[in-house]
Amino acid sequence: WGGSVWYKWTVTCRGTTGLTNQASGIVRITTPPSVALSSPANLAKFNAPASVSLQATASDADGITKVEYFRGTPGNYVSLGSSTTFPYLVTWSSAPAGIYFITAVATDGKGATTRSASRKIYVNGSPPSLNNKGFEFPSVGSGSAAWVLGPAADGWTFDSLSGVSGNNSAFTSGNSVAPAGQQVGILHGVGSVRQSVTFQPGYYKIQVKVAKRGNFSLCAPVGPNPCPPAINVTVCGSAAGQIVPGATSYQTKTSDAFEKATAGSCEIKLQGISQNGADIASFIDDVKVIVAP
Question: How much is the average pLDDT of 148-170?
């Protein structure tokens, strides 16, 4: 609960001659206040520019004179404002995109202070848009010959096992039509596509519409060439989970959530997985970066 306690002390000295000296006094020992954040919640998420309500509970037998809020870490704290009256509410207005650690510092009537445990929050920037997110370029039309591997196109960088396909091609004739536009991306075997985008700080996922190839697959549910195919997602050089196409019709699926602590450019990569050399393919479309819930 905090507060002050007064103690009386006495010291008595007796010499070898029998003389006695005595001194006494009083001392105040101050116990610091208690304080805990009540808002925002740990791992709370906001969209920039954000209005973040800051609130804490604080108590002390000597009374609370101020609660001040900070963002940052030890040695790098930045004040966000203070309140001298219960319920010690402060609003951090127009908070920019970033990942922040929030603390509250309570001061009691005798000047003693306590800093609360920190809470981590995300203020998400706007997700970046991908160029050629629907694989509409290069245009290949439709029909059995409407596909190409390893093309040169704006946005994505394709390798020799990735490319684009129109509807009803030798690749896609066993699948439903493209869910966004007239074409889809091909990940054949271990084929990959990659693209660099500029992120603002925040907490994100990769969202993609996916399907497994329906007209041919040299694999089986068990055995030397196991199915289904899967897609590894990598963001900024770090794994962001796998996406597994579950059907020949397109389904919307997402990667694992990932943090982007600072603004800047980094690469998004989607790569097929072909176990034991299985001849399999996945189709991808409408690739987006979204704010993670």
Answer: 96
For the chain, the first-to-last Cα distance in angstroms comes to 37
| pTM for this predicted structure | 0.85
Query: Could you write out the three-class secondary structure of the chain?
Result: CCEEEEEEEEEEEECCCCCEEEEEEEEEEEECCEEEEEECCCCEEEECCEEEEEEEEEECCCCEEEEEEEECCCCCCEEEEEECCCCCCEEEEEECCEEEEEEEEEEECCCCEEECCCEEEEEECCCCCCCCCCCCCCCCCCCCCCEEECCCCCCCEECCCEEEEECCCCCCCCCCCCCCCCEEEEEECCCEEEEEEEECCEEEEEEEEEEECCCCCECECCCCCECCCEEEEEECCEEEEEECCCCCCCEEEECCCEEECCCEEEEEEEEEECHHHCECEEEEEEEEEEECC
Assess contact for 289 and 197: CB atoms under 8 A.
Answer: yes
Q: Which range scores top for mean pLDDT: 14-18, 86-90, 243-247? A: 86-90
Highest-pLDDT range among 29-33, 126-130, 151-155: 126-130
Sequence-distant (≥ 6) Cβ neighbours of residue 258 within 8 angstroms: 203, 204, 205, 235, 236, 238, 240, 292
Average pLDDT over residues 82-104: 98
Query: Is the model's pLDDT at 154 over the cut of 80?
Result: yes
- The answer, yes or no, to whether residue 1 has pLDDT greater than 50, is no
Smallest Cα–Cα separation from 80: which of 59, 95, 64, 65?
95
CB crowding 139-169: b at 16 or more within 10 Å, else e: ebebeeebbbbeeebebbebbebbbbbbbeb
Higher-pLDDT residue of 280 and 173 is 173
